[in-house]
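Exercise 7.
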Amino acid sequence: MRNVIVTGMSGAGKTTVIHQLEDMGYFCVDNIPVELIPKLTKMLINDDSIDKLALGIDVRNKKGLKDLKGILETLKEDGFRYEILFMDADDETILRRYKETRRSHPLDADGRLDRAIEDERRIVGFIKDDANYVIDTSNMLVRELKIRVDKLFRSPGKDERFDITIMSFGFKYGIPKYADLVFDVRFLPNPFYEPDLKELTGNDKPVSDYVLSFEEAKQFEIKLFEMIEFLVPNYIKEGKNQLFIACGCTGGKHRSVTIANELFKHMSQLPYNVNVEHIDIAK
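Solution. The predicted structure, written as tokens, is:
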């Protein structure tokens, strides 16, 4: 079980990291009271469904932070292994971020944000000294931070795969709201007007053979495959971990199903986790 404690300066990106770890399959608990850490970890260690844990701890704990070092030492003696990620940024950057978001600093009681930042550095300094990793986000874009976290805490094997969901749908029922890419295949000849094919779907060979028999379908497949193969590595580079591709025809039963199935077959040969769904095929 891999256990990560995410802490650091307020405004340095801890929330972004927690969300990234959650997307990577970590069971995340943010702003947990320090005194509850031993009980929580003991409970979660015995949960077979959890193999990655991330705990967010920051200055909002205030009084509890003074006990953190001792609690962590006790956990280590009891066999609980953990890594500490400390998020940092320079004072100017943190000041700017708070002004942009118009949020209040946890220690800002008198309107002096600069003093609050100074107090926080003093309070959490001992954690930084013990941290396994320190990430300074002063000159870092969000996507760059996500890539850094991914490299540090991504488990080898299955977790490295990019999730692709390919969907067929009918325009008469509306475009799926969560689709990242939408392809309209209504330019292809419609099997609906063929008496022997009307009641079948793109999952049936006679329909798929009919749709794919046309030259425009063959050319479209080539261009579609090339485009998706080009896009996916670049999405991954930008920190994206999943992609929803929607192929639509009029009713979502014939042409879109055929093309979605063909794209699924092609992408399944590549190192991605690919699924296909036909959301309007039964309508």
